Structures are given as structure tokens and as C-alpha cells.
Amino acid sequence: MKLLTVIPIIKNVFTGQPLSYFAVQNIKPGSLVFVALRNKKIPALVTAAEDVKNKKAELKSALFKLKKIFGIISEPFLSKSFLGAVNYASDYYAADPGRILKQIIPAHALQKGGTLESPAKTLSGNYFQPIIFQTDADERVRYYKNIIRESFAKNESVFVCFPTIEETKEAFEKLNQGISHKSFILHSGLKTSEFKKNYKEAARSKDPVLLIGTGMHLFVNRPDLGTIIVDHEASANYKKMERPFLDIRFFAECMAKHAQIRFIAGDLVPRVETEYAADGGLYQKRTAGSQYATSRKTAFFLANSGNTEFSAISRNIKDIIGQMLKRNEKVVLFVNRRGLSPLTLCLDCGQPVKCGKCSTPAILHKNNKESSRQFVCHKCFAKMTIEDRCFHCGSWNLKSYGIGTEKVEEETRRYFPDSPIFQLNSDCVKNRKQGERIRDDFLKASRGILVATELIFSYFHEPVDNIIIVSVDNLFTLPDFRASERIFRMLLRLKCLTNNFFGIQSRLENKKIFKDALNDNLASFYREELEGREQLGYPPFSRLIKISSSAKSLALLDADINRAKILLKQSQPLDFPSFIHKINDVYTHNIILKVPPDAWPYKNTTLLETLRNLGPRFTVQIDPVSIL
After folding, report:
1. Residue 321: in which H helix or E strand, if any?
2. How far is CA 256 from CA 230, 231, 244, 479, in A?
3. Are 471 and 505 in contact (CB under 8 A)?
4. 244 prior amide bond cis, ω within 30
5. Are 210 and 182 in contact (CB under 8 A)?
6. What 3-state DSSP class applies to 625?
7. What distance in Å separates the CA atoms of residue 373 and residue 392, rounded to the nearest whole number?
8. pLDDT tens digits along 250-299
9. Start-end of H helices in 62-182
């Protein structure tokens, strides 16, 4: 009989700590088993196994009754490097190992018969080799193909990781050419039977394989794995949006470091932290000689220039669009906000029209069903009828400001009545097929205009004729230290989606970021961004930790925050209301800690234990996507 120490693979808070069970079978560490917990049958990872006879004295004095496991899911199937990364990530994110496992292993891999052992062959003489490859998508694909050929020649397997299922599918079509019998795709969109088939063939192959998948499939145990590639490394989709907010990029690099293999991060505009690490020698930095090389024209337009009254599109842009349509070209007008107008103000009291349940301005939208207008909250999705009076003071003096997709669409229909007009945003795209149909209809048209938000990146992977950014200025108003980086990356991604002409319309004609984007001057942008962050002590010059608490009662929220501030006093906490303080009648308050980047987690164990024990009403984010 064996005494097993297991980690339940669940997401419920405070239940992911190691637990003890017994089994009559001879089970090895690394196996997956089913155990009983809170009257439920759940999967668990065995981390230790020893004979019960060696623990008889401890078991007799224990205050609990030892339970038997339900059964074995799989014999050991996780690599030592994977488990090492799980343990380190558990400390880094101040989370239980079970919660890390839940975010890094898909549910269909935890089913009976869903896992298996891999061929017993290992690499020798390898070492951790981190590389950052900075160039456009086509150049990265060519580079990855060379890496794959080189790896196969050395009998090594390769895992190429992507942030989304659609990017995974697209890359699979490009990377598996000529080696389809050695290439396997893994993502959560596959049917269980298809996943098991791909997984079994990939794991059992005696030859090196190419694995292309999302981050939740890094668990696949190939002892001959020699390279992990993380493409589009700046994508926020790698960051999980629920506790413990695991970052797949971080985990993949940890796994490569534990396995002592090559790690490659690729993107058009890598994160500022990645660029800083490369400049400091922590990454080998590589670029393609022809990156960004193109014959496209670029231009900057001053917003509302040439118009006698306010218009979302300046006269110069209208003239250019007209010329493009005459040449039977297609034009994408990029707008970063949905609706008609993002803000409606009372000119007497100065108060914006807000959602009744949220502390966020309500967005003015068209109500297509009734040919009228309505206010919509983009947080709780509540809809409000248009009132002639101010909700706050009762004044009639209301005015709408800003540019949304619907306003641009209205203007383009008025100025170009004979041209097909399309919209691509989350209001008109409710599923993948709808988005693909809009894209395909636009591309099949002999000419036309597409009014699109950032959803364009999910559906367009090949360049279009022309792209003009109509509205981006409001993004500069966000008090977030990453705002400039996001804007710059968005500008360059849109530019790389353009064949002929790329233009930017803005009121902020002196913003250097526009000049850097139009001239592909990444070095200038990174230099200025790093100087600003160093002055303010933001990453990469510190490690940020964000602690949040939410409650319907402000009194309860204040009590929680004050208690946390006392516990975190030695770390000099800075607290403030969330940027959107109330969503659906729930208030949120944040605490930010700045710690030296090399001190976390093991040089700050007191803080680590404090964060682990804050309680279920707090969420802890290490390296948060936003501090707002």
C-alpha cells in the first residue's frame, strides 16, 4: 500500500495545496489520479509516493481519515522540466500548484486515456539559449522553418506556441508544408477524439515532431524537445484573465530554462521588457535584413482639417478615399471605439451620461431595430433609452463628443453612396463565421470601405490595399504606463497589413510616436519609452504586484483595503480606486507594490507568504497587464 501526496488540479481558491491519499497500486510520482475532494471526483497530480508502513506512527496520530484514490488516469506523463516550471510559477504567482496546473493543462488531457508516456529518448549536451527575433510575420515564418529543418537534422522536436486558436490554425498551414506527417496541431477547439489522435501520434512518434499549439499544450512530453518558440510574444492573450493570472510566455521560458533548451520569442514589436533584456545581454537579439521593407506610402493628417464643421473624416482623407475607390481599391478605416460617440456631456453641470450600475460613461449607439438611438454600457451591457434631459441636473443642454465606428460608417455612406460599406466590430460580429463572412465579402468586392476596430487583427492576416487610422487620440488619455507601447505596436501592425497607403489622422500632430511609427523607428521609440519608465520606476526597472478587492459595500471594501495595507506596510503600498470604480454595482479598489525585479520571489519570502494568505476576497496579479 502506498501513501500518496497529490496536488488537486482545480481552480477553487485555497484547495490546491498538497493532500494525502492511499492506493493499493504501485503508483509513481508524476502520475495522474482521480481523488475525492468535497464530494467531487477530481484529477490530481502525484508528487510523492512511499510505503504506508514507513508512516504508520504519523497516520495513527493524524486527525483525519486517509481516503483511497478512485483510480489512475495515467502513468507518469509530465516531464521534469514541465513540473519544475509549475513549481517555480507557483511561487512566482503566489499561487497553489494546483491552480497553475489547471491553467496550463486542458480538461480533455485529464480524462481517462487522455494521456500517455512518450518515447524514452533524451537530449544531451544542450543548454538554455534565449533568443528574441524581431521582424514581420512572413520573415518570422521563414526563420521558424529554418529552425525546424535544423532541429529535425539533429533529431530534435520543436514546439511553436501561439496566443490564439486562429493564429495556431493559420501557422499550421504555413509551417507543416513538406513535413505534414511529422506535424501535429493541438488546441482546445479540437474535438476530443481529434485531440487524442494528434496527441498520441505526436507523443509516440519515434522521429522528431513539430508541435504547433496554444500554451495549454506545452505539457506534451517529448524528451527530444530541443526548441520552444513563442510567436507574437507581445500579445496580451498569453496572459490568463483569472487567478492566478498565469502568463504563458513566462511559463514557456521557465520550462525551456529547466530543460536547458533553446527558447525563441518572436514578434514585430516585442514588449519593452523583452527589448530591455535583449539590450542587457539576457537574450540573443536577431532581426531579418528586410524587415519592414515596402514600397507603401505613408502620411499624417490633422483631424478635421479642411472641414467647416466637425467631421470624423478630414477633407484631405475624403479626397484620397475617393481617388482610391476610382482605382477600384479597397480601404480600411480604423476606429478604436464602437458606437456613435464615446462621450455625452451636460454642458451646464459638466457631468457625463453614465451607466446606472457602473461608473463608466454610457456610449451612444444606433438602435438599428427601431431606427433610433440608445445608450449602451460597454461594461455591464445595460441599454438605456435616450433622454433629452441630463440625468444629473435635468438640463436640456447635452452634447456628444468623440468618434465611434457608427459615426464613421454614417459619414462614409453619405460621402460615398455608390461604394459598398462594411463594418467589423464586436457589435456586428457575434461569432467566428460572421466575422469571416464580413471579411470575405469585403475582399471579394471590386472596391469598398471597411470600418474596423482592433478586431481586424483576428480576421486579416494578409495585407489589404490601404489603411487609414481615423481615431486613436483617446487612447493617450488612459493613465497607464503601457499605453504608449500598445499604441505604437498597434500602429506598426496596421502598417504591416497595408500594401499601398497607410495614413494616420490625429489632433496630436506633435506626438513623436506617430513619426516613429511612420518611419519604422523602433530604436527611437524604445529609447524614449525606457527613459520614461526608469524615471518613474516602472517595469523593467521594478516588478509590479497588483492586489485588488471588490465588494458591493464601500464600507466592507474600505475595511478590506485598510487591513491589507497594514499587512503590506513594509512594501510601501499605494492604493487607489480602480479606473472604473464600479461595474454592475460592485466597487473595486487596487493596491500597487513595486519590488526590485531580481528580488521576487525568493528574496522576498515574507511578502510572498503575506500574499498567499490575504484571503479569497483579494486577487493578486504579478506583472499585471494594466495597473488601472
Report:
1. helix 315-326
2. 11, 15, 21, 35
3. yes
4. yes
5. yes
6. coil
7. 20
8. 999 999 999 999 999 999 999 999 999 999 999 999 887 544 445 678 88
9. 80-92, 97-104, 137-153, 165-175
